[in-house]
Amino acid sequence: MNTNSFAAHTAGPPEARLLTFHNWVHLNRGDRITVSRPGHLPEPGTVDDVSDDARYFWARIDGRGRVLVFHGDGSVIHTFHPATGRHHASHSA
User: Fold this and answer.
1) How many Å apart are CA 24 and CA 9, to the nearest integer?
2) 15 CB contacts (<8 Å, ≥6 apart)?
């Protein structure tokens, strides 16, 4: 997938707020997310575990299993907060 195509698939909704990987410290086990990894279409899943320093986390991708997401791998993470109905985005790079 080329860079323009990846960008088109990873753009969040208009109310999305782009966050850096430093905000991964706010991820919790069970949070619903969408993981957009370079070369892959966005995949919905759930946060499974976050490292103590929040430099990486494991996600369970719906119907597929676990994937490791780490700082610098180029992934874009969108979280959905049902209480506010808002999406938030986070880059690993």
Assistant:
1) 21
2) 86, 87
Return the amino acid letter for 56.
Y
- pLDDT per position as a tens digit, 27-76: 999 999 889 899 999 899 999 999 998 999 999 999 999 999 998 899 98
Contact 78, 88 (CB under 8 A): yes
The token pair that represents 65 in the structure block: 């299993």
Label residue 39 exposed, middle or buried (CB < 10 Å: 0-12, 13-18, 19+): exposed
Looking at the DSSP bridge assignments, the partners of residue 32 are 46
- Whole-structure pTM over 0.85, yes or no? no
